[in-house]
Amino acid sequence: METRIAELRKKNGITQEELARKVDVARQTIISLEQNRYNPSLLLAHRITNALEQKHIEDVFLLE
Amino acid sequence: MIGKPEWFTRRKWAGWGLFPATWQGWVYMVILLTAIFGTQFIPADEKTRMIALGIVAAILILDTIDIMMRMKKDERETMHEAIAERNALWVIIFVLVAGVAYQAARNVVLYGNFTIDPVILIALFAGLIAKAATNIYLDKKN
Predict the structure, then answer these.
(1) What is the ipTM of this complex?
(2) A44 touching chain B per CB within 8 A
(3) H-helix segments, chain B
(4) CA–CA gap between residue A4 and residue A12 (Å, rounded)
(5) Single residue among B21, B49, B72 that ends a domain in this structure
């Protein structure tokens, strides 16, 4: 799974820390997600999608 | 109870329990450790000192459990903790089983009787029950 979290986060002008706080996870989890080292649960994927102001999970998470 | 979860971090590299993450956590640790050692300087008989030590130690253990249960973990941290605990448990089980086998073999060879430490067997049996109970609970839950 690849993600566009870093790209969309920068576009929205928010830091990793702020995104982590918004979706209620540790900053390290955001770092792992951005580096494609961790596959999130469906719930977390939804939260991140909403926090990055995207409509669909596929806009943020790309299944390779 | 007494301590707050945000004062501590979960021990990852050196055993189980908590490690102070803020100055409040360090103050908490110093106060409780001082209280534990302080019980040995109470001007009373040995029995009273042991009772005082037991009370302070019980408070420390209960508060540690309370803090750990209230400590916030996200799904990635929860998964990491679960895998680390599982691996630790497998090593413990392996060592216990090897210990039982060694004890049994040694006693048969040296003394001609098959005796082993019942505490080890009880520990393994208790673990078996905990695993079964957890699986029953989780199967019903989701």
Answers:
(1) 0.87
(2) yes
(3) 23-38, 46-70, 75-111, 118-141
(4) 12
(5) B72
